[in-house]
Amino acid sequence: MKLYFYTGPQCSLCDLADVELAKTSMYSSLEIEKINIRTDAELYHLYGARIPVLKRADNQSEIGWPFDSSTLEAFLQ
Question: InterPro entries per the record (predicted)?
Fold first, then answer.
């Protein structure tokens, strides 16, 4: 499964989200594309106050911080 990980430079919450993501049982099978929202004005407008955000490529559903590994497990099903 492909995920878009909307993040920004020096984002401590993004680091925490990365740790929670690594705890999921599906982690090894995920294709994760990290996207710096500061490189695109539209992305910055959409996600600037919400990062970190994970978005599934298959169904476009999103989960924003705060989340834990069990919430992520449900999101990835």
Answer: Glutaredoxin-like, Thioredoxin-like_sf
Q: Whole-angstrom Cα distance, residue 29 to residue 52? A: 20
Given the candidates 3.30.70.120, 3.40.30.10, 3.30.1490.20, 3.40.720.10, the CATH classification of the domain at 2-76 is: 3.40.30.10
Q: Give the start-end residues of each E strand in 9-66.
A: 31-36, 53-56, 62-64
Instruction: Please state, in angstroms and rounded to a whole number, the distance separating the CA atoms of residues 76 and 56.
Output: 8
The structural domains of the chain, with segments of one domain joined by +, span 2-76
pLDDT tens digits for range 13-60: 999 999 999 999 989 999 999 999 999 999 999 999 999 999 999 999
Nearest to 49 by CA among 67, 60, 61, 64: 64
